[in-house]
Specification:
twelve-stranded mixed β-sheet; elongated; alpha+beta
Length: 284
């Protein structure tokens, strides 16, 4: 018999051994548990056995007053196919509902069919597909004349937002904005914040917003450009980073077909991630 409760510090020693090598590259859960438990903006849930030992874990939080996000779901290898994933998901959705949320979202890499099947069985539906692009070893931007990128200002926010909000790329992404591996609805305030922090960039091809990663890396998370101009905007991002002494540029952009193709032409390693969602019903 399993039940769900909030995680405690003493659970870390039980969870860490089976959350270090989940994937071929390892995992981030074991090293993040202490920080998550101290973060007041999220909740770590565990599915425990009859001895109160954690056999499953997940993280749930609100990214806005109405938008819940689920992540880091892991089940002990010996406890799989016993309903723990469903149990944790139901508890997470209840938590979102209890805190006023109206939608639950999560992301699954398209290369993980087992997880995709599971979330669909749980009632989630695919909302948007995203191209996640890792940079080539030696990016060489081919900058067209007139495309020199510059840090945009507050005066660029409104035209950029108006263009983006009616664009194909915004529609493909369901108006969402990624932050690390979480997605929520974008707002014009996000672009205003990026402008204040000098993360809002303009070129003749359009606009982009980036988030800092490691000291020598950035990740482009918002783009406003047409199909014809998007390849030039990719090059503008590479040129901007090169001028700033930044070695690596990553992209998370809605997959339109042409967006992923343009990134692959620039020798980016592109994989796809789908954001799933389901409504959270409130009792009447």
């Amino acid at each position: 018999m399993f039940s769900v409760r909030h995680a405690r510090a003493e659970d870390i020693s039980h969870i860490s051994p089976w959350t270090r090598d989940t994937f071929s590259w390892g995992d981030y859960v074991a090293d993040s548990l202490s920080r998550w438990l101290e973060d007041p903006n999220l909740k770590v849930l565990v599915a425990v056995d009859s001895f109160d030992v954690p056999r499953g874990v997940c993280v749930v939080q609100l990214l806005s007053p109405r938008e819940g996000w689920l992540s880091a779901a892991r089940i002990h290898p010996d406890a799989r196919r016993q309903g723990l994933g469903t149990l944790l998901n139901e508890a997470s959705v209840d938590w979102i509902r209890d805190h006023g949320g109206e939608v639950a979202r999560l992301a699954v890499e398209d290369s993980n069919p087992a997880a995709t099947s599971q979330v669909i069985k749980l009632g989630y539906r695919p909302g948007s597909s995203w191209a996640y692009a890792e940079p080539p070893e030696d990016p060489a931007p081919r900058l067209a004349e007139g495309d020199k990128p510059t840090v945009a200002t507050r005066s660029d926010v409104d035209p950029a937002w108006m263009y983006w909000s009616t664009s194909e790329i915004a529609d493909a992404g369901r108006m969402l904005l990624p932050s690390v591996w979480k997605w929520r609805r974008a707002t014009v305030a996000d672009i205003e914040t990026a402008a204040r922090e000098r993360r809002f960039v303009s070129s003749a091809a359009g606009w982009l917003v980036y988030d800092p990663r490691e000291p020598d890396s950035i990740e482009v998370v918002w783009v406003a450009a047409s199909q014809n101009d998007f390849p030039r905007l990719v090059n503008a991002a590479l040129r901007f980073s090169a001028d700033a002494g930044i070695r690596n540029v990553y992209f998370k952009v809605p997959e339109t077909g042409w967006s992923g193709e343009a990134l692959r032409r620039e020798r980016f390693d592109v994989s796809n991630v789908t954001v799933y969602s389901k409504p959270v019903s409130h009792p009447r």
